[in-house]
Amino acid sequence: xxxxxxxxxxxxxxxxxxxxxxxxxxxxxxxxxxxxxxxxxxxxxxxxxxxxxxxxxxxxxxxxxxxxxxxxxxxxxxxxxxxxxxxxxxxxxxxxxxxxxxxxxxxxxxxxxxxxxxxxxxxxxxxxxxxxxxxxxxxxxxxxxxxxxxxxxxxxxxxxxxxxxxxxxxxxxxxxxxxxxxxxxxxxxxxxxxxxxxxxxxxxxxxxxxxxxxxxxxxxxxxxxxxxxxxxxxxxxxxxxxxxxxxxxxxxxxxxxxxxxxxxxxxxxxxxxxxxxxxxxxxxxxxxxxxxxxxxxxxxxxxxxxxxxxxxxxxxxxxxxxxxxxxxxxxxxxxxxxxxxxxxxxxxxxxxxxxxxxxxxxxxxxxxxxxxxxxxxxxxxxxxxxxxxxxxxxxxxxxxxxxxxxxxxxxxxxxxxxxxxxxxxxxxxxxxxxxxxxxxx
Length: 441
Prior knowledge:
Layout: E1 10-12, E2 28-30, H1 46-50, E3 58-63, H2 78-81, H3 85-93, E4 95-100, H4 110-117, H5 129-136, E5 146-155, E6 161-163, H6 171-181, E7 190-197, E8 200-206, H7 237-254, E9 262-269, H8 277-281, E10 285-288, H9 292-300, E11 304-305, H10 312-322, E12 328-333, H11 335-341, H12 345-356, H13 359-363, E13 369-373, E14 390-396, H14 409-412, E15 418-421, H15 425-432
Parallel strand pairs: 3-12, 3-13, 4-15, 10-11, 10-12
Antiparallel strand pairs: 1-2, 4-14, 5-6, 5-8, 5-9, 7-8, 13-14
Helix pairs in contact: 5-9, 11-12
């Protein structure tokens, strides 16, 4: 077995996660599923056993929420409507298909969507967003702690959610609200609230017997009240009781504010640990992302993280400065997902065009392998993540170009890659980069 394969799919949380379940007990849990292996996938340890060194540069460009749907029957999707001459040229020079982040009909969160792109099993290695956001902000998360992802939201006079994102409040408003929330005290538990960005924040809980096995309070819909943090296991009753006290205190603290007068909680998670991309594949990886959660994902995967980035222009300028130090580059563009969640068809198309304009700067650096895709689809007509497969292109010297000449959902559906698991993107990048040996005699 290749080094580290026994660790792949294991998440070390520092607390007994999903106590009493069929997955197991204790602070170190081997995740598993009862689903048969996909016929499209080889043994997950095989690529690691074939890794060999090479002086090639691999770039993964992720346009978050890239996939979409037409706003009228027969019309183009957001990507198809966007003016993307540079991505279209790469598609014509390369090989395209549609990547499936988790499985047919499964709507993925950003965490599993990205872990699949990095080559991890998105089900076995799933990590709650609370921990990822905390790590992305550079906060200290210790064994036994619990990270909770928060959305500032708007409740009406009846306590019903009318806006799950409080109008995407300015980050400065978020910071002022967080400063007030940090005055909340609950006996026996340390609480630390932190601003992430716009309407998003993080709560870190530190104390004994904390468990992530609690119902999320975000109903994922408007027109209904927040859910209660009900315990999902007997040993999560203490955590449930603490979270009830927290939500009551939040209501007392900011309930009179507008538009952000409450918080929705989800993504409970303890300290994660995955085997690094360097250990698995020998990659010196770096992350160029503007948003904290994706920095957290990168840190869990052992990537170096460039902080202080705030725009596409900033990312591309910085890429050139770190080019010589690394051989795997994860570039993340958040805007298409955010505009899709807002229901902005034209705004999402414009966000895609923003990245397309900087593609020549990326190609001028001479990457040996470039993969362009998304972590999931976010159709603006649905205003949320969806299960639809995501356009994907590969451009490398060893790629046999197919007959597709544009980058879009229907064009990629005609590509030579077909519909394939996103988890296969990493071994394909390694192969095109000359980083995998021959298998067998």
